[in-house]
Design goal:
Elements: E1 12-13, E2 17-20, E3 25-28, E4 31-32, H1 33-36, H2 42-51, H3 57-70, H4 75-86, H5 91-100, H6 114-139, E5 148-153, E6 156-160, E7 172-179, E8 183-194, E9 199-203
Antiparallel strand pairs: 1-2, 2-3, 3-4, 5-6, 6-9, 7-8, 8-9
């Protein structure tokens, strides 16, 4: 069979898709690509591929929240990317190594059931954009971005998407704050508390924020 689905061959069908090169048609989960792409979000398409249907508003919100919680650069993944960068590895090889490093995480599950496989898939899908961005920054000689500011003041910062398990309340950590106008701003912040929004830091030096 011609893998492109064109020429004189029959269109290619899988459980989730149908490719017809002659007709110029791609069906994903029962939807034509040109109908799906302008209207569906990334998370909606992920849900469609996993569940054979589009999500309800509550299901979409739940999946988005799950992805936010998983969108972290773990110490294991960072070490894998740093080793790949030192070796001059290509982007795909680096990402493959970082994904495989998930097996080394302290809470990694060795279970072989649907829940465990879904959790692993969720982590990979949620983290892949961050891993790609982190490796691009490493190759450019910059530090990876491991979180984003949910709220910021001159002496305080709430950061989401951080590896909370690696932080301790009351301890101070060196932070590299990225601002739109001033670039990177190094500072030290003490962890005050964790919340469902992220990690709250008290900043020792004033931040250049309005």
């Amino acid at each position: 069979m011609n893998p492109s689905g064109d020429s004189d061959h029959e269109p290619i069908r899988t459980r989730l898709s149908r490719v017809d090169g002659q007709a110029g048609e791609l069906i994903i989960g029962g939807f034509r690509l040109e109908d799906l792409a302008p209207l569906a979000s990334f998370e909606e398409v992920v849900f469609l591929l996993w569940n054979d249907r589009l999500p309800t508003s509550d299901e979409l919100r739940s999946l988005q929240e799950e992805m936010v919680r998983e969108r972290i650069l773990t110490p294991e993944a960072r070490r894998a990317l740093e080793r790949a960068n030192q070796a001059g590895a290509g982007s795909m090889d680096a990402l493959r190594l970082a994904v495989e490093s998930q097996a080394l995480e302290p809470l990694a599950s060795g279970a072989d059931d649907l829940a465990a496989w879904r959790g692993q898939a969720l982590r990979i899908v949620a983290r892949m954009p961050m891993l790609a961005a982190a490796y691009a920054r490493l190759r450019a000689g910059a530090e990876p971005v491991v979180g984003h500011a949910v709220d910021a003041g001159a002496h305080g910062l709430c950061v989401g998407n951080l590896p909370i398990a690696a932080l301790t309340v009351g301890q101070s950590y060196r932070l590299e704050v990225l601002t739109g106008a001033d670039g990177e701003f190094p500072c030290t912040g003490k962890v005050l508390y964790f919340s469902d929004r992220g990690v709250s830091f008290r900043i020792d030096e004033p931040l250049p924020v309005e």
